């Protein structure tokens, strides 16, 4: 039991800052040793991890977890193996730290380089699945950041067990033990105290429901990497291959509905509205999707219900889609910039100028041309692993992997130059 | 006279957002045309600009401006020519927008590119010199951002005259007229309203005194690019060329004292303290610098006064320097990370491992090896021009030029790919 929450959070934050200064000087080999040793330890300790996890599973009904949420919480042998393999995959990624991003020689002989280095201390807040504990610790330490992990109360025992294992391995390979810390209380006040620690925390990354993100954004005194929601569009242009458009629409909407890169809204050019909506509408309806459309959509899809203004701003996270017929490309672009959430938007077209205009003008983290919105994901885009997705434009946009956990500094090498 | 400040700021912010969407689609030629036409117009209208400027000069005593500050406010023919040339220099810089930062082809054939694009809307708050109006507008529009300019009350008439000229030229070349807006009131409440416009403003850049920066940081609801102060160090290592060290120290401290990249603190390795401080101390004293040192410094420099803990955190912006003898490199690094402001810190050494360790471990925007701290400047480091300097680690660090006014988006090109 922690008696003074504020003193505790200050201590944790100060320890993280001190560890971050040490981490600036460690080698890639040390970081990889930690990842590989930890993977081995996770496999060895699988039974003990499942034992701790059982305590969380037992308490799940107390927290009102649905059977699906309880299942996501459960650590099985397969999932533990997956966690271990995740650490090994991060070990195999190139070390982002020390990369010379660019360099130039000034006329006076100064050699100016921008060198990639860690952000410092990451405060990571997440809910539910315990494997995120290992993933987040791996990405932060691989990018030479210290991390303060704040998991959900539902996974408290699983997270503590994992954390002890990961922190113990840090000391064995000579890394600072406070490189990874887990907040050992479920008191909500602790989060508020950490969000005021701007001297010792460089960035906060919240991952979870919208109310969590909103609380973090309103209380944080340091930068935040986040997305609120994903109101993602599929726009079927006049020059679309309609069969391709149907396949991409179905995939974007239905392949997995509870995720931020699933489509929530369909826009169709008036010239192809009838031809497209008759078939695509029937397919969506057959798949069990409820369509909420404007008047023109409802002309072609009898089953569609009327859409309200609110529908166009809604992230359904389920089997519903809003739909609207637009008169031209620019109306689609304006609609997306106005109603969307700057997350992921797709155009289906064979018209190169239309694709270029859409890609340039749509103000979103990712624009898909003739591909499903579901590809906006760190793994799918080749980042190796991701700690979150950002819909902001500052620092990091879209999926955030190792590179997005770094910054740079200028290193200027001279031979006695002074300024005239 | 603006009657409803809040309605006015909302309108300005909304107009900026609409202009930003249009700017996403303009060509580099249009932007350069605007810069070159504006340069010509500034030269043609020099007399009218000086007439408006005279009104500000006349009111300068009302605002309590010192003779030096009044002089900085004054527009002369030379300064107007300098402003025009500044716009031409920005026109000559490469267009940052549309650059493919990196790209890859995924195994499923998706072509993933990260393309540089504008941040959107910049709110720029500055004090005193009217030439900053033209500089900031030029950098923002060249990077396809809309800008809301909020100048100081001392330069109100000069800024309005310049702004009318720049905005007028926008329309002539077909750019959105609200790409550049100037806040046409000196009411301080307007700043507060803009700082809450996070839907329509993507970044705020304050440039001025520490109290302005602090107000902006505490009230802003969007990201801020800023630095509070520059407590910059010169560390003279055991392996330093002592003559070079004296020259760099004098330059860093005295070449210009009122600027953020001037040295404010001297650290000397104990092994060379006597040899270095006897000569360097005498040189600083002869140049009129007051030294505030620890006990060991005062052994070698009779004129040095005792330093307090506070001295090591102080940005003097004048002819004073704090000094301390340290036992080794790591003590110097720890001192800088603890007392410094993460701005610019220099090491003087011929020892390569020492230089590498210092560069890696010092957590500052710029680290100078055998060069003056005064080189941390956009022009000196080759950025072409700068809108400010950042001591933060998020998004932009060090001098901020055109590139730092941009972000990126993922553009993913497919041929019908869907996710399995």
Give me the secondary-structure topology:
Two copies of one chain form a homodimer.
Chain A: H1 5-23, H2 28-44, H3 46-59, H4 67-73, H5 77-92, E1 100-105, E2 111-118, E3 121-126, H6 131-142, E4 146-150, H7 156-172, E5 180-182, H8 188-195, E6 203-207, H9 210-219, E7 232-236, H10 242-254, E8 263-269, H11 270-286, E9 290-293, H12 295-300, E10 305-306, E11 320-326, H13 329-339, E12 344-348, H14 352-361, E13 366-371, E14 388-390, E15 398-400, E16 406-417
Parallel strand pairs in A: 3-4, 3-6, 4-5, 7-8, 7-12, 8-11, 9-10, 9-11, 12-13
Antiparallel strand pairs in A: 1-2, 2-16, 14-15
Catalytic activity (chains A, B): L-glutamate 5-semialdehyde + phosphate + NADP(+) = L-glutamyl 5-phosphate + NADPH + H(+)
InterPro entries (chains A, B): Ald_DH/histidinol_DH, Ald_DH_C, Ald_DH_N, Aldehyde_DH_dom, G-glutamylP_reductase_CS, Glu-5-SA_DH, GPR_dom
Pathway (chains A, B): Amino-acid biosynthesis; L-proline biosynthesis; L-glutamate 5-semialdehyde from L-glutamate: step 2/2
Architecture overview:
The structure is a homodimer of 420-residue chains. By secondary structure, the first copy, chain A, is of the alpha/beta class. Chain A folds into 2 domains: 5-226 and 399-412, Aldehyde Dehydrogenase, Chain A, domain 1; 232-380, Aldehyde Dehydrogenase, Chain A, domain 2 (3-Layer(aba) Sandwich), CATH 3.40.309. Helix content of chain A is 42%, strand content 21%. Chain A has 14 helices and 16 strands. In chain A, the strands form 4 sheets. In chain A, strands 10-9-11-8-7-12-13 form a 7-stranded parallel beta sheet, with helices on both faces. In chain A, helix 3 (46-59) runs antiparallel to helix 7 and helix 10 packs across helix 11 (270-286). The radius of gyration of chain A is 24 Å and the shape is globular. The relative contact order of chain A is 0.13. Chains A, B: It is found in: Cytoplasm. Chains A, B: One of its GO terms (biological process) is L-proline biosynthetic process. Chains A, B: It catalyses: L-glutamate 5-semialdehyde + phosphate + NADP(+) = L-glutamyl 5-phosphate + NADPH + H(+).
């Amino acid at each position: 039991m922690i008696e003074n929450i504020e003193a505790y959070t200050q201590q944790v934050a100060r320890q993280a800052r001190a560890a971050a200064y040490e981490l600036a000087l460690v080698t890639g080999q040390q970081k990889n040793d930690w990842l590989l040793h930890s993977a081995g330890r996770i496999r060895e300790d699988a039974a003990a991890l499942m034992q701790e996890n059982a305590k969380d599973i037992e308490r799940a009904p107390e927290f009102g977890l649905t059977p699906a949420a309880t299942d996501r919480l459960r650590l099985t042998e397969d999932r533990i193996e997956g966690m271990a393999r995740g650490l090994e995959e991060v070990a195999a990624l190139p070390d982002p730290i020390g990369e010379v991003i660019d360099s130039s020689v000034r006329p006076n002989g100064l050699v100016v380089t921008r060198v990639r280095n860690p952000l410092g201390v990451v405060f990571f807040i997440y809910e539910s699945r315990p494997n995120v504990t290992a993933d987040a610790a791996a990405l932060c330490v691989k990018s030479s950041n210290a991390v303060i992990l704040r998991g959900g109360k539902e996974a408290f025992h699983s997270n503590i067990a994992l954390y002890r294992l990961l922190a113990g391995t840090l000391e064995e390979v000579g890394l600072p033990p406070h490189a990874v810390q887990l907040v050992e209380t479920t008191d909500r006040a602790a989060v508020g105290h950490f969000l005021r620690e701007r001297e010792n925390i460089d960035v906060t990354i919240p991952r979870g429901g919208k109310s969590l993100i909103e609380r973090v954004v309103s209380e944080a005194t340091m930068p935040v990497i986040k997305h609120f929601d994903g109101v993602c569009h599929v726009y079927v242009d006049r020059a679309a291959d309609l069969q391709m458009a149907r396949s991409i629409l179905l995939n974007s909407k239905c392949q997995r509905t509870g995720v931020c890169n699933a489509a929530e809204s369909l826009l169709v050019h008036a010239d192809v509205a009838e031809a497209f909506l008759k078939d695509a509408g029937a397919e969506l309806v057959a798949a069990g999707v409820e369509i909420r459309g404007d008047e023109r959509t409802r002309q072609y899809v009898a089953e569609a219900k009327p859409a309200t203004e609110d529908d166009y701003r809604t992230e359904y996270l389920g089997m519903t889609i809003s739909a609207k017929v637009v008169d031209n490309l620019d109306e689609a672009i304006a609609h997306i910039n106005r109603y969307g959430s700057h997350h992921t938007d797709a155009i289906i077209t064979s018209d190169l100028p239309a694709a270029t205009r859409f890609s340039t003008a749509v103000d979103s983290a990712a624009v898909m041309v003739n591909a499903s919105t579901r590809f906006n994901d760190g793994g799918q885009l080749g980042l190796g692993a991701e700690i979150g997705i950002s819909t902001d434009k500052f620092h990091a946009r879209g999926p955030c992997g190792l590179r997005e956990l770094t910054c740079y500094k200028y290193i200027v090498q001279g031979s006695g130059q002074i300024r005239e």
